[in-house]
Design brief:
heterodimer, A: alpha/beta, 8-stranded mixed sheet, 18 strands, B: mainly beta, 4-stranded antiparallel sheet, about 40% strand, globular
């Protein structure tokens, strides 16, 4: 594989950049693989990469109905963080933070990881207490957390509304300085390019039409480009999990919902952190191009539409303007929606299933992007070793049955509970 | 924006309604031995498919009645609307 470097960049400049190798091949599916990953999004690509890199399993195919990186990894708000209170979430996410820090070198692809810090705003004394508790839990798990008072927050984000007579005054906030953002498409492309170079087949425009299951074991998968014999299948299809679960006669604790995001017109640098509103659900950062990147709540009802409805967008932006009034002067450049696999407790599932050789990775709710490396790493381990890793023990499928819910916010699909 | 025809009030905008999830889920009967799996299916497990979906909505900013709506989850087309006590 051609290495991306300053020297190669200069060398290729002499031929007007016409002679770069293709980043990944376009193979026709083989008749048989050791592992098939369904879903060529961030998590699927990362899983294939870590299967090859950590477990030396390279006879792997990624099957994608559309094109790789065309789903939620291409349409999120790029926030990376590990500010969780519960051990299972905190340790998993912090392991991911380590992978994020090394990712550009690891993949030889600039993912533009920018650890600019995230601030969760607090709007009451009670909320400050809750954040102090969460911050302490984070620090016990080795994650950086700083509790900020009103003056400290004002120094960092002076453009927020600090006036006296507001409905939700800013009391302070909890900051994770090591959190940040990354270039989302680059993550997908970087994983794809490295996985491809190690022998993984990335098969696009290939829809899964069914599964070959007999006596409780996976024998193969049927696709629009032919049947494939395989003993191990990893499902990494986010918002399409329910559709494939139906083909497997499984009913899972996940609902498919729609989440919107939007960007404003580009403006000069004004916000150098990620900030979240504490009295609702709104998050904002500024991209390198200057656009304000914003997101918030689900549309609130089951949806596969991949486009949002205006009432939710209006609701979300109202929160944004309450937090940072200058946003009302900006024009909206783009809005978009993605379909989320909302689990019932708001935490993901990375586990084996009752079908031998079928592994499930879903339920990422609002936080799929930041989990990409850790999800791929642990899912690859689960598939290769046929057992869950300590890091994804808490993300079991049967926790809903046994009552061991991982209710970080206790939200899940029911947004109105907040 | 969705427009939902409340069987009690007529056509109203989505803003007046609150969502209640899958309307085909039945609570296990009381005073009977219920397996963990039955509870699991009632509380957590959902089909949530693409296409026609029967779901509960409450006309919260209107008559406050619960209704059943059959809606396409991909196109948002609404096919059928029932009162809460009418069978699907």
């Amino acid at each position: 594989m051609q290495k991306y470097s300053i020297f190669n960049l200069i060398k290729n400049a002499f031929s007007n950049h016409q002679n770069w190798d293709l980043a990944w091949k376009d193979p026709t599916p083989k008749k048989e693989y050791d592992v098939v990953i369904i879903g060529g999004g961030g998590h699927g690509l990362a899983t294939a990469y870590y299967l090859a890199k950590e477990h030396n399993i390279t006879n792997v195919a990624i099957i994608e109905k559309g094109w790789i990186g065309g789903g939620n990894v291409g349409r999120n708000t790029t926030i990376i963080r590990s500010n969780y209170m519960h051990d299972d979430n905190a340790l998993f996410s912090e392991f991911g933070m380590d992978l994020w820090r090394r990712m550009s070198q690891d993949l030889n692809y600039n993912v533009m990881f920018s650890p600019r810090g995230i601030i969760n705003l607090a709007h009451s004394d009670a909320q400050m207490n809750v954040y102090a508790r969460r911050g302490n839990s984070m620090r016990l798990n080795g994650i950086d957390a700083v509790l900020l008072n009103r003056e400290q927050v004002k120094e960092i984000i002076p453009m927020a509304d600090f006036s006296e007579n507001v409905r939700f005054p800013i009391f302070g906030g909890l900051m994770q300085p090591s959190a940040g953002t990354a270039r989302h498409d680059a993550v997908a492309w970087g994983y794809a390019r490295q996985a491809d170079s190690m022998g993984v087949d990335i098969i696009q425009n290939c829809e899964v039409t069914g599964f070959d299951v007999s006596s409780g074991k996976i024998n193969g998968v049927r696709t629009s480009r032919g049947d494939i014999k395989v003993k191990k299948i990893g499902l990494c299809v986010a918002g399409s999990t329910n559709i494939l679960a139906e083909k497997l006669n499984m009913t899972i604790p996940v609902e498919t919902h729609l989440l919107q995001a939007c960007v404003s017109e580009p403006v000069k640098p004004v916000l150098d952190r990620v900030v979240t509103f504490g009295a609702g659900h709104f998050y904002i950062s500024q991209s390198d191009k200057g656009e304000m990147v914003m997101g918030g709540d689900l549309d609130g009802y089951n949806s596969y539409a991949q486009r949002g409805n205006l009432p939710t967008l209006q609701h979300v932006l109202t929160e944004g303007i309450a937090m940072m009034p200058f946003l009302s002067k900006l024009k909206m450049l783009r809005t978009w929606g993605g379909i989320m696999d909302m689990s019932m407790d708001g935490s993901p599932i990375i586990d084996k299933t009752h079908i031998e050789g079928l592994y499930l990775n879903c339920g990422w709710c609002y936080g799929g992007f930041k989990a990409t490396p850790a999800s791929g790493w642990t899912f690859a381990h689960t598939i290769a070793q046929d057992r869950v890793h300590k890091l994804n023990e808490g993300y079991s499928l049967n926790r809903f049955n046994t009552g061991h819910l991982l209710d970080e916010k206790g939200l899940g699909t029911k947004t109105w509970i907040s | 924006m969705l427009h939902i025809k409340c069987p009690h009030c007529g056509m109203r905008s989505q803003n007046e309604f609150s969502y209640g999830g899958d309307a085909t889920i039945k609570r296990p009967e009381l005073n009977k031995e219920i397996s963990d799996q039955d509870w699991d299916n009632f509380v957590y497990n959902r089909k949530s498919l693409r296409g026609k979906h029967f779901e509960l909505w409450q006309h919260l900013s209107g008559c406050r009645q619960w209704i059943k709506v059959e809606r396409d989850t991909a196109t948002h087309e609404i096919f059928k609307i029932l009162k809460a006590n009418e069978d699907i």
